[in-house]
Amino acid sequence: MERFSDDSRCIAWMPVSESSTAETPYNSSNTLHFVTTVTECAIPYYRTHSNFGSLGRRKVRQVQRDLSYRWPNNMVPYFVGNVTSNIKKSVRMAIEELHAWTCIRFQNVNERYSNGDSVRIVDLGSCSSPIGRQQIGKQDVSLTKNCWGMGTAIHELMHAIGIEHTQSRSDRNRYLDILAQNIDQRDLPNFELLSPRLWANLVPYDYGSVMHYSADSFSNKDDEQTMLPKDRTFIETMGSMIPNFYDFDQINQYYNCYDSCRNSGEQVANCANGGIPNPNNCQICNCPMGYGGDLCDQRPEGCGSTLVATDRWQKQKMTVRFSKNDDQYFTFCNSWVVGPAGQTIQVIYEITSESTRRQICSFGCYEGGIEVKHLEDPRITNDRDCCLNTPLNVTTTVNPLPVIIYTSGATVTYDFSYRYL
């Protein structure tokens, strides 16, 4: 794998209250501390559709800051500089997602904007961003032409509003094994843990966060794994380019977005399946993937179907075809397997085409894959598959059982069998 580096530098920090630990609830009224890292950045392989290598070296230093690193009034002035039309589209899509799910607002301003701090979207030869408001006037979010898709754009914009990498969390070692022998010595600082005294973890650890790097990040050889999930079934999930429920939930907690519903004095939505009232409209819900409708009690609209399980095996081919309307992102098909109330559901599935499997197989499953939401927490990303060439067998009490298949280009088909027990 060709190594790629440049001269851009990424400043990274994460706020927590002075008395916080990994288990301590976040309290925005306290004084905050920050960890600051300065990084020479390159493009993580899984975030490109080209053959670029891992991130470069970094130096770490810790400094004490305050809440001024959040953007005042949840408003981020920004303007777009010298980037490609595809990057402009990705940024626009990312901002639309952030506006839909959170109370953060990106305000488009003129490049001569001088009324405070702002973000400039620019191509500096890397996918990189400072983390949080730097109080330096204009700060750059860099997106080069190889920073593919809305997933990368939202990753960098989430950095800009104050969200750090998942694998840097203080509780990381509960969830990951680090394979230091596969990491270049210069890159080892990228795997340093941040102190729980200095960091607050606002949401559960989610392997499928858009802020989590892939299993081969910073590898010193092609396809060598540098970090493995404790639950090995999540190895393809890490490195996702799909922002998930907890990504947005973390932003909403950090910026106190939920206060708008808590303090409204009006009745708010009674959300099902782990949903939370949307801070922009308390009568509807932010829903975890696989659930839809205003109250998260319906199958999402669009591609997919409801499969009624019996006590005998039934078979179905599940197919997703890419829509050009989803350029720079994914096309999703959402199905539900429904059995009698209280019954356990069993499913067996595998990809139908070996050539398609080879085409989409990657750490992060960023070309396409399947997610069967069998875990108890409806909000968390389940183990995704895009590489295995043997059938997967899942038994779960989740009923209805959401099944999500998606693609960024290839037509993907799975053989899917289901029944209730």
UniProtKB/TrEMBL annotation:
Q: Which GO terms describe its molecular function?
A: metalloendopeptidase activity; zinc ion binding
Q: Which SUPFAM superfamilies match?
A: Metalloproteases ('zincins'), catalytic domain
- How is the cofactor bound, in the record's words? Binds 1 zinc ion per subunit.
Record bears the keyword Iron:
no
Give the UniProt keywords, A-Z: Disulfide bond, EGF-like domain, Glycoprotein, Hydrolase, Metal-binding, Metalloprotease, Protease, Secreted, Signal, Zinc, Zymogen
GO cellular-component terms in the record? extracellular space
Residues noted as binding Zn(2+) in the record, renumbered to the chain: H155, H159, H165
Can you give the residue ranges of the Peptidase M12A domain?
Answer: 62-258
User: From which domain of life does this come?
Assistant: Eukaryota
**InterPro entries per record:** Astacin-like_dom, MetalloPept_cat_dom_sf, Metallopeptidase_nem, Peptidase_M12A, Peptidase_Metallo
Chain's role? Metalloprotease.
Q: What is this protein called?
A: Zinc metalloproteinase
Q: Which organism is it from?
A: Caenorhabditis briggsae
| Taxonomic lineage of the native organism | Eukaryota, Metazoa, Ecdysozoa, Nematoda, Chromadorea
